[in-house]
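To: structure desk
From: M.T.
Subject: fold request, one chain
Message: Could you run this one when you get a chance? Sequence is below, nothing fancy, just the single chain.
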Amino acid sequence: MKVVTNPAYPFLADFFCHLSDRFETEGITIYEGRNVLKRFNIEGCELVVKSFKVPFFVNRVVYTLFRKSKARRSYEYAFEILKRGSNTPEPLGYIEEYKHGLLNHSYSVSAYSGAPISGNT
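Reply: Done. Structure tokens follow.
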């Protein structure tokens, strides 16, 4: 498992490390489709976790060896959007879980903004 936490939020590291266990039973579902978005309150910090669909085998190989995971790209692109002066929820971290050496599941975590959810998440 790979866990990356925004350095400004070190208190979220423990939540991130146990996210896969907590995701199914905790949080408030705010969107369920191809991916699932859930809202959590961790030590007074409102956040949204996006659970990406487990990729098919070929894509698991691609995301492990050749491409960054969707969760990692989401985290990194959010910083770039903020750097360019546009508004987007603050990126808090991402988690990548591996099974048999290949990417199996990934989560992207951002601050809750209260903005409406677009249709293509």
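Reply (cont.): The chain has one domain: 2-111. Let me know if you need anything else for the meeting.
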